[in-house]
Design goal:
211 residues; mainly beta; Elongation Factor Tu (Ef-tu), domain 3; Double Stranded RNA Binding Domain; 2 domains; 9% helix; 39% strand
């Protein structure tokens, strides 16, 4: 599985022994706690639920307090479910830290991209603009959407203005440059989705992993 939750701290750069500059994203990951275990016998599939982030007791409702108490786990702010591979076993209230990750491995990082509100078709889809000369009536407009007589309507899925950003995005095959276990930090080469403080899911890469 090798999956952990964390939050984005920001970007910086580090230097290798040869003087090479590597841009990295700093992620404060874990520790996460196993808050539930699902099996084929009870739920139809094998998975674990992990929790991340401290939360005040008054901010947790009674059903969730009962859920944490049943699995003898501390209260957590964020929960995520991870499917298990064949042979993987976990115990209730087990703690997963960045020390379980190995430097030099490839990881996939999933987060929520920055929201940009309502945008036009040029910024949202990269459409070309019209001529900017005097008298032009087509500068940043969407242009023709459909024929008037037939089909007399706009097809669904047409690229036009609308909400942009705040989507679930996964950056694949990012190099895990450094693990700082005593500070719960992962340094990943390149950029990851979202702004500072955003929730991230980091796991070993599914594709392109060096064996």
């Amino acid at each position: 599985m090798k999956t952990i939750l964390g939050k984005k701290i920001g970007m910086t750069q580090i230097f290798t022994e040869t003087g090479e500059v590597i841009p990295v994203t700093v992620i404060e990951a874990g520790p996460v706690t196993v808050t539930q275990i699902k099996t084929k016998k009870t739920d139809g599939y094998d998975a674990v639920q992990i929790g991340f982030g401290e939360v005040k007791e008054r901010r947790v409702n009674k059903p969730m307090k009962g859920h944490f108490a049943r699995w003898q786990a501390p209260l957590k702010k964020h929960l995520a479910e991870i499917r298990l591979e064949e042979g993987e076993t976990y115990e209730p209230n087990q703690v997963i830290t960045v020390a379980d990750f190995e430097e030099g491995k490839k990881v996939d990082v999933t987060g929520t991209s920055k929201g940009k509100g309502t945008q036009g078709n040029i910024k949202r889809h990269g459409h070309h603009r019209g001529p900017m000369t005097h008298g032009s009536k087509h500068k940043r407009l969407p242009g023709a959407l459909a024929a008037g007589t037939y089909p007399s309507r706009v097809f669904k899925g047409n690229d036009g203005p609308g909400r942009m950003g705040r989507d679930t995005v996964t950056m694949q095959n990012l190099l895990l440059v450094k693990v700082i276990a005593d500070r719960n930090l992962l340094l990943v080469k390149g950029a990851v989705p979202g702004g500072r403080g955003g929730l991230l899911r980091v796991r070993y890469a599914i594709k392109g992993q060096d064996k």
